[in-house]
Amino acid sequence: MSKTLGFEEPVIKLREKIDELKEIAKTADVDMTGEIETLETRLKQLETQIYSNMEPWDRVQVARHPMRPTTLEYIEEICTDFIELHGDRSYGDDEAIVGGIAFFDGQPITIIGHQRGKTTKENIRRNFGMPHPEGYRKALRLMKQAEKFGRPIICFIDTKGAYPGKAAEERGQSEAIAKNLFEMAGLKVPVISIVIGEGGSGGALALGVANKIFMLENSTYSVISPEGAASILWKDASLAKQAAEAMKITAYDLKEMDIIDGIVPEVSGGAHRDLQAQAKSLKDCISSALNELNSLSEIELIENRYDKFRKIGQFIELEEM
Q1: How far, in Å, are 132, 204, 321 from residue 160 at the CA level?
Q2: What domain range includes position 154?
Q3: Taking the C-alpha atoms of 73, 252, 250 and 179 in order, what is their torsion angle to the nearest 10 degrees?
Q4: How sure is the predictor about 2, in pLDDT bands with cuts at 50, 70 and 90?
Q5: In this predicted model, what pLDDT tens digit does every residue of 190-202 receive, in sequence order?
Q6: Does 320 reside within a domain?
Q7: How far is 128 from 114, CA to CA, in rounded Å?
Q8: Is there a single domain that holds both residue 205 and residue 245?
Q9: Alpha-carbon span 164 to 8, nearest angstrom
Q10: Residue 46 pLDDT greater than 70, yes or no
Q11: Are 97 and 135 spatial neighbours (Cβ–Cβ below 8 Å)?
Q12: Angle between helix 9-27 and 33-51 (nearest 10)
């Protein structure tokens, strides 16, 4: 059974009640159609009420849901003939980032993304989705390969951040991220990035310099986690809920500030409720963006990316005294 989030408790209990009545009707041969229909109507109303009024902290919890679909699950649903490629040709292979070549609606693409686990064993194997520098160098190797063969690049972002350990710093974590930012800015092929879970700090941005950036409805994208921000601002990580509200980290906040290009709606209750339906929405979004970007020339793609990031942010000119 998937983990229940606090704000979801009324919905979960009502679903369980409906399932219980259905089981009784089935085993006892009792007609309970009316009662079940009444409860299902109430369930739809309750879901609309709860999921349309989620606070930023609620969305953080959904983005972190242990059963939330991962990069490899989406690749399996939206692509065909995926071949995973490994290694950075310098140090080793980092399983916190996966990537390779595949077909998307018949078009060859390169697809790359952060990969976390769903069990403790898998999370340890994937380093909880926090890449070492060789992971980012692998991603860049695949991007340059895609540019060489004229393949569009799709990136899935889902990480708390780059791994901050001593070994990662010794192997050039900051340099690896910085080089990705620099090289992605000048790629001559379409680049689309989608935040599918957590998008944390430079570890996320290293796959985020794209022509089009989208976020799943309940994903987050920020320079630091709410707990980290609360620890710095108020010396108290327990104030993460207040930090999440102040940081403007939700898809709706970022769309309003024109940092992202669009929001991919999630199925009721979050992407983990229905992988196939969520993958279809994601595929439709990517398909539409690719159709638009495929019509641009190499120079137009680079200029489009440059203009996009130059326009992010606001400033006010003060009159001279």
Answers
A1: 13, 8, 45
A2: 61-311
A3: 70
A4: very low
A5: 999 999 999 998 9
A6: no
A7: 10
A8: yes
A9: 33
A10: no
A11: yes
A12: 160
For every residue of 227-276, which 3-state class applies, written as one string? HHHHHHHHCCHHHHHHHHHHHCCEHHHHHHCCCCCEEECCCCCCHHHCHH
As beta bridge partners, residue 110 has 101, 153
Least confident of 192-201, 206-215, 312-321: 312-321
- The two tokens of residue 130 are 């926090």
Domain boundary among 14, 31, 53: 53
Whole-angstrom Cα distance, residue 183 to residue 10?
48
In a domain, 183, yes or no: yes
Give yes or no: residues 228 and 255 share one domain.
Answer: yes
Beta bridge partners of 250: 220
Beta bridge partners of 99: 112
Q: Are 192 and 301 in contact (CB under 8 A)?
A: no
Checking if the pLDDT of 96 tops 60, the result is yes
Spatial distance between the Cα atoms of 260 and 213, rounded to a whole number of angstroms: 5
Name the nearest CA neighbour of 246 among 231, 262, 263, 229: 229
Question: Could you tell me if 146 and 242 lie in one domain?
Answer: yes
Strands 212-216 and 220-222: unpaired
Closest Cα to residue 308, out of 193, 139, 158? 193
Residues 17 and 159 in one domain: no
Provide the whole-model pTM. Answer: 0.85
| Structure-token pair, residue 75 | 């690749």
- Indicate the burial class of 114 (C-beta count within 10 angstroms; 0-12, 13-18, 19 or more): buried
